[in-house]
Amino acid sequence: MKCENCGYELHDNDLFCTNCGKQVPIKDQNFKTQPAPTTKNPKPIQTEKNGGVTESIFSIILSVLGVCCLVGSLYFIFWGIETKLDGFLIAAIASPDIILGIVLLALADISQKIEILLKR
Asked: Does pTM surpass 0.70?
């Protein structure tokens, strides 16, 4: 291939003449284009939903135990006075149950939130 301006011998891939600097006209070349390869979309990962039932039952059990502890403690405080126990003794017996009830209710709430996060 030769430069149209100065006749200098060019390489096939030259865009400009190395002798005079004139741009080499691009001749229409038949480039074969290949279609882009198609990719298969992977199936989305499905999580098992059976674990959610176990976590729901666990949350319900914790909630029921928490409410039972709270109700039992309040019953003992207000209607268990007939035993003539000292107020300090009543508080010593009922306070751990109240705390346990609150902790169980909090755990039930946390386990429900974890269950929701795991389903995402």
From this structure: no
| Domain residue ranges in the chain | 50-119
Q: Is pLDDT of 51 > 60?
A: no
Whether residue 101 contacts residue 60, with contact meaning beta carbons closer than 8 Å, is answered with no
CB 69 within 8 A of CB 98: yes
Closest CA relative to residue 24, chosen from 6, 3, 46: 3
Concatenate the DSSP letters of all residues of 21-90 into one string. Answer: -PBPPPP---PPP-PPPP-PPPPPPPPPSHHHHHHHHHHHHHHHHHHHHHHHHHHHHHH-GGG---HHHH
Return the structure tokens found at 107. Answer: 């755990």
**Cα distance between residue 92 and residue 106, in whole Å:** 22
